[in-house]
Amino acid sequence: MPDLDEAKLDKAQRALLAAMRAGPRGAGLNLRGPFGVFMHAPAFGALAQELGAHCRFGTSVSPRLSEFAILVTARHWRAHYEWHVHAPIAQKAGVRPATIADLKAGRAPARAAADEKAVYAFVTELYGKKRVSDRTYVRLHKLFGDAGMVEFMGILGYYALVAMTLDAFRVPVPEGAALPFAEPKI
């Protein structure tokens, strides 16, 4: 996808950018990352960014566990940009640096908190087996309840969409930033 020049956005694109900047992501939002891609299809982008804002800022899932799940998703998809953005956010939300390092290396986080281990088991089982066992489900449901489980699935679905978007369109990390994972051979 070609980069867009903010000065040359059409009416629908300008409206989408204004909506994103007026939301919880703030006025500093730029046309990089998934939002730069979404701008090429502003009707889709409007729906995606609204869902994303809710998933990131409006669910009952704590920011620590939400950001942890985003990192597990980013690692699964090897979504460099997603990892680059969310690793510092996860640490600020309370995910320990050693846990982040384990995830980045593709290891199960050995010393993660019990709730993070429950999230990790659920996410990796879902992504790996395309299902979760009753035991894995019940373990996470005890933390989140019914509504929280629905919201959690929304978080996973949205950030998988973001990861796939970033990967398919090869959205680069900012200049000078290191790639967090080895590039897969295509």
Topology:
Blueprint: H1 11-22, H2 33-38, H3 42-57, H4 63-77, H5 80-93, H6 97-104, H7 114-129, H8 134-168
Helix pairs in contact: 1-3, 3-8, 4-5, 4-7, 4-8, 7-8
Pfam families: CMD
Organism: Rhodoplanes roseus
GO molecular function: peroxiredoxin activity
What does the model show?
This is Carboxymuconolactone decarboxylase-like domain-containing protein. InterPro entries: AhpD-like, CMD-like. It holds the Pfam family CMD. It is a single chain. The relative contact order is 0.15. This protein is globular. The chain has 8 helices and no strands. It folds into 2 domains: 48 residues; 106 residues, AhpD-like (Up-down Bundle). Helix 3 packs across helix 8 and helix 4 packs across helix 8. The two termini are 19 Å apart. With 186 residues, the chain is an all-alpha fold. The mean pLDDT is 95.
Short description:
InterPro entries: AhpD-like (IPR029032), CMD-like (IPR003779). Helices cover 66% and strands 0% of the residues.
Report the radius of gyration as a whole number of Å. 17 Å
Helix content: 55-70%
Domain count: 2
Mean pLDDT: 95
Q: What is the overall shape?
A: globular
What is the CATH C-level name of the largest domain? Mainly Alpha
Coarse structural class: mainly alpha
Q: What percent strand?
A: under 5%
Count of strand segments: 0
Question: How would a crystallographer describe the biggest sheet?
Answer: none
**CATH level-four homologous superfamily name of the largest domain:** AhpD-like
H/E topology pattern: HHHHHHHH
CATH architecture of the largest domain: Up-down Bundle
InterPro entries: AhpD-like (IPR029032), CMD-like (IPR003779)
GO molecular function: peroxiredoxin activity
Domain Carboxymuconolactone decarboxylase-like: 42-124
Organism: Rhodoplanes roseus
